Amino acid sequence: xxxxxxxxxxxxxxxxxxxxxxxxxxxxxxxxxxxxxxxxxxxxxxxxxxxxxxxxxxxxxxxxxxxxxxxxxxxxxxxxxxxxxxxxxxxxxxxxxxxxxxxxxxxxxxxxxxxxxxxxxxxxxxxxxxxxxxxxxxxxxxxxxxxxxxxxxxxxxxxxxxxxxxxxxxxxxxxxxxxxxxxxxxxxxxxxxxxxxxxxxxxxxxxxxxxxxxxxxxxxxxxxxxxxxxxxxxxxxxxxxxxxxxxxxxxxxxxxxxxxxxxxxxxxxxxxxxxxxxxxxxxxxxxxxxxxxxxxxxxxxxxxxxxxxxxxxxxxxxxxxxxxxxxxxxxxxxxxxxxxxxxxxxxxxxxxxxxxxxxxxxxxxxxxxxxxxxxxxxxxxxxxxxxxxxxxxxxxxxxxxxxxxxxxxxxxxxxxxxxxxxxxxxxxxxxxxxxxxxxxxxxxxxxxxxxxxxxxxxxxxxxxxxxxxxxxxxxxxxxxxxxxxxxxxxxxxxxxxxxxxxxxxxxxxxxxxxxxxxxxxxxxxxxxxxxxxxxxxxxxxxxxxxxxxxxxxxxxxxxxx
Length: 561
Hints:
Elements: H1 8-17, H2 20-52, H3 57-104, H4 117-158, H5 160-207, H6 209-214, H7 218-270, H8 276-288, H9 290-317, E1 338-345, E2 348-355, E3 360-365, H10 368-378, E4 386-391, E5 394-395, H11 401-407, E6 408-411, E7 420-421, H12 422-426, H13 433-439, H14 442-448, E8 456-457, H15 466-480, E9 484-488, H16 496-509, E10 514-518, H17 522-526, E11 530-535, E12 538-543, H18 545-551, H19 553-560
Parallel strand pairs: 3-10, 3-11, 6-9, 9-10
Antiparallel strand pairs: 1-2, 1-4, 4-5, 7-8, 11-12
Helix pairs in contact: 1-4, 1-9, 2-3, 2-4, 2-8, 3-4, 4-5, 4-9, 5-7, 5-9, 7-8, 7-9, 13-14, 13-15, 13-16
């Protein structure tokens, strides 16, 4: 499965073609099962005509042995068909999940735009599973068709009108079932969208639970989720009603069709056109036909839901990347010189400044949006609308974003931790773990934990306080030892004493490496070689921290208030 899929049909085709061998095997085995099922009433009719009416015990024993062999074949063929089909379903869903994960984690980004985290998870789980199920139901749909064909041939042998009735009546019945499945497909897509949105809201609320409790916003959060959940419930009920209507309508059509076959067979028997054994076979085949038509109903419903989910998967896989790869190359090893040439993006306006390799630069942005936009441009999460960001003279917009992030590491303010030990969260580079921990004051966090750096950290670091999480996240960024490190407000949740310790440790550890601190912390700005002031998205001042504090009232208000 690749990200070149453009439609739901493309996603379905790739899911099936990726497991072609298993689907083919399951189809052959399932077709053998359905064909064998159709032969059972035919054999019983032969037994009645040849053994019972003829009174031959040997013939009766022979045909009973044939029946036993057929039943044994039926049992094994169904078992292995189900195993192969289920395996194909699970593998296809797994490949889809890998493709979705690869797209979401692609360095070019873009897949997450306009979607909550829970929505992405829902597409990668529920929708991927529904698409994978197509591989499980398709072999049985083919098998049901094989059963209908075997039944039609057997009925043709018994009576030409009966065989033609089945052969000519089945295609219109299948087309009607397809039309009946259209509303189910539409409502299934709506159901998945509402369910994904509800999952996204729930994830969002859980991740911000501490904040909600702190500001007393639990009632508003509950009301928001209640509304979202009710929308999801309504969509689910509409889809359930559509499925019930679909199954009932297909079952009614099937019942009418089978009744017609049985009536025609009974009329032919009463007129003497067919024997008693043929009548038994015809009635048995008419009853057997209920099974393949029920399978058709089930397959059609699953395909309708699979098409709806495939459409959502296709939309995600084909979401344009936020930034495109290029053929530019950054030097290896990178020196770390950063140059912004008249950069405009979002709230940024004509930023033009140079950061020599190895310097520690502070950036003070009065507008938080300007800080975020600057981080996006430096880390190539977005390309400037105008101007260029250069590293060692190379325009970043021409370099593959994955390579950019090997050289320029952006440590966002809201960086999450992962489930695992503290050491596993921090150790990401060649720098010794204890150096990164000491520079970020995260060694104090480790000392306070029961098992030190081996202490397990829960999802998103919720087992740690806000200040502890910040220090561990900063330690992780320092441990990577990137040529260019961009850090955004890494000390907002720590006390002033710890902040001063971090400032000293960070400056010492990053000596000789380019570091950009986007912050209003006076302790961090005091260790910077130079501070750049942004106001209104433009550079309005530049100089040393002490100099700016002395000469600029707006700077004092921003960093000392």
